[in-house]
Amino acid sequence: MHKLIIAAAAIAALTGVAAVAAPGSSQGVRAAAEQAAITQDAAFIFGGHRHCWYTRGWNGPGWYWCGYSHRHGHGWGGAEGWNGWRHR
User: What is the pLDDT of residues 17-72, one digit of tens each?
Assistant: First the structure.
């Protein structure tokens, strides 16, 4: 819980979001997280495009722009390990 409060405070400071969290209470942390959108899924972004892992893309398994796995010739990023990225 302590690490979560520190992380929320750091993000709030960076984004200008005010957050007050009482010890043992997560209301302030939750409010800051919602305002700063820190609860969204982490995205793999490169070159201004979000990349998603597809096992059956047009160029085989790999990283493609999200939604482009079957748009032949477009959105290919690279295979496993590209940019040091791993899929689960």
Answer: 554 545 555 666 666 655 554 444 557 999 999 999 999 999 999 999 999 999 99
Taking the complete model, does pTM exceed 0.85, yes or no? Answer: no
H-helix or E-strand containing 76? strand 76-78
The span from the CA of 80 to the CA of 61, in Å, is 8
What are the angstrom distances between the C-alpha of 33 and each of 2, 28, 43, 48, 69?
Answer: 15, 8, 17, 24, 32
Q: Where are the domains of the chain?
A: 2-36, 44-84
DSSP 63: E
CB 53 within 8 A of CB 62: yes
Ranges of H-type helices in the chain: 2-15, 27-36
pLDDT at position 32: 60
Structure tokens at 16: 């200008």
